[in-house]
# Entry
Amino acid sequence: MGEKLANSKGSEGLVPSKKSRAREFIFSQSGFLIAFIIVLSIAITMVNRNFIKPQNILNVLGQISIAGIVAVGVGLILISGDFDISVGSQISLDGAILAILMTRTGSVLLPVIVMIFTGAALGFINGVIVAKSKCASFIITLGTRAAYHGLVLVATKGRNFPLQGMFETLGRGKIGFIPIPIVIFFLVLIFAYFLLKYMRFGRTLYAVGGNRTAAYLSGVNVDTIKIAVYTLCGLLVALASMTLISKLGASYPNTGDGYELQALAAVVVGGTSLWGGKGTALGLFLGVVIFGVMSNSLNMMNVSPYFREVFIGGIIIVATILSRIGELKK
Amino acid sequence: MEKLLDIRNLNKGFPGVQALSDIDFDLYGGEVHCLVGENGAGKSTLVEILAGNYRFDSGQLHIKADSYSYLSPSKSLTIGIETVHQEDQLVLSVTAAENIYMGHLPMNRLGLFNLRKCIKDSQVLVDSLGLHLDVSELVSELTPVERKTVCIAKALSRRVSILILDEPTATLGLDETKILLDGVRRIREQGIGIIYISHFINEVFDIADRITVFKDGKKVATHLRSRCSKEQVIGEMVGRKAGHIFIRPEHKVGEVIFQVRNFTRKGAAEDINFEVHEGEIFGIGGLIGSGRTELARLMFGIDRRDTGNIILRGKDVTPNTPIEAIRNGFGYLTEDRKETGLILGRPVKENITIAEMNIRRPVLLDLPEERNQAVKMVNSLRIMTPSLEQVVINLSGGNQQKVVLAKWMLSDVDVIIFDEPTIGIDVGAKKEIYELIDDMALKGKVIVMISSDLPELLALSDRIGIMRKGKMVKIIKGSEATEESLLKYSTGV
# Structure
């Protein structure tokens, strides 16, 4: 297929035109996901007209924004070829520390700073173990998931910590008519887009996830990259936890339960390869939206919330199989 | 003795290459029939056909009284064909005895595994080979020759009439080889027909009853061992000179600019010394497994060395990690571009700029500048790709290799180590890559080129260092070397 290609046309042909890029986009995974969202929305609206109302759309976004922030962190790690399933426990632990310190000190700023450092540290620990041991990150973070959850129980002795009206704005406030969690989610997405597209760090994540050895032999410091991406995920999780605790008005020992699965489901649906090296910020966003729309539609169709877990599990399995089929076709 | 195997006019082609053409080959019970030839001569293809992993395109295959149109792996085993591959296929974490009976472990009356019988039977089997080995030991504790013995015993544990040994001594020392050859003689006495593949001519003349030479997928000749000489066989392996596809233009050779001193990693490459002059291409020859790639990995800082340093233009640039190597001006084109050279799922552009980016280490990428650099590389190396955004996996082998080359050229490295630069690449692209290598040498880059392709090594190298069993046994001038002399030093005749 080489002959008819670029070189006869000089450098012009090497850089795709706007038109061909548009065509490519429509047939890409993101294009497919957008089409899917549209079809899904129309279908749901036909069943229940309330779905398409602005209030409900804000509702959907509000519900997914916190899981969405976590999904960005998990997605960045997945692009680099690894997993973090300890994020749920991290949310609980970050949240517990925040709430305990706030109720003890009565101040806001110091607990928030401590919590951010905690979040970074939890991610850093994951990263160091995964990078240095070269063991399967899925198992390592399964371990830290249990350990972090244990630390929550140690710190809280199993009790809840209500914030008694402190620190409400972040989770419940609005900018104009848009809830702040949604704003934060979009800022995080823009950050992820910028990081993946314009920063060497983001580029390197793809390289490490695509072929760790080749990246290493091309001068990438693989261990540093791993540690950095886990730490970054820890920071995003801290941000999510902060927003969540503020929204709930209290910390519970099980605040973060289930977030690792929701995040993973959204990431996989968004086309981030489970084998690393593939994924985009747009994909992450669309994955989160699809996930949110689907759970919202379950609510609207009065499906029992007890089915939620079944549904999440199903989504992960189906999305994984679909992406595997796509991978095999190549 | 009974004729076990009779192959006539066998053909097997792969896309782009005729691996076997009109091959005749036969084997009698109780003989060792050695198969020799250079890499790519077609030996492995024949082995894979007999093991049932490939189907042949045309020809006749008779085994004992029956004729076959193809073999499947299970049919091959039922007939009694056993293959001992070059790489040991053993489970390290269990005993030798269990490995020997893997797949048909002896059971007791309750249908449970009978370890005692397994150990007893396999000990008898190993003893019958005249080898000393305690089969109740874990394979992970065994020496290379003992492991090879286990592989052979494993083959013999089934009803076997044709035994194929594919380079059984490639990783063994001289004494160990002797032990193994004694074992092979005992197997021959049992009336089993043995196809024995080896690169080591001395060893072949030690063990063979007959010797068949393959060259470029054709059979050159079959000799009785007693009726031929080593020189004759080597001459046939090399064959008539094919027309050179590349001749390096006249060039000046300047001062010594690059020195490798006392490079050693025990068991991989030992006490390696050589130097490269300005404008020179330094070739490294030797058999696969002779320590060439190990040396390249040491020079690039991938594996830890015991001793040694590298001097480039008077400065010590010995790297301890690949990252350091790249910063010190090294590039390494690995022998397996798909596994270790490229990020196959990423675009051409990113693969070209990755090393340069890691030298410069900017926080933010300058995307327009990156695109310009990649376009320049794609055009100057004439990489055939529909766009810079094309993922590399969709390019042909030659173009993939050019992408790897572009990565190092863009990084402006001073030293490039090539490991099999044209493996799996068509002739046209080969020539282009030779021109690029030549051009880099002329521009004062230090070129170290490992190759198994003898015509390539001869055509490009000013001098050639030949490796054998981890040592650089000889450095000869390219102009004075011939395929025969390279092969002689590589095999130690």
Q: What stands out?
A: Chain A touches chain B through 35 residues (CB under 8 Å).
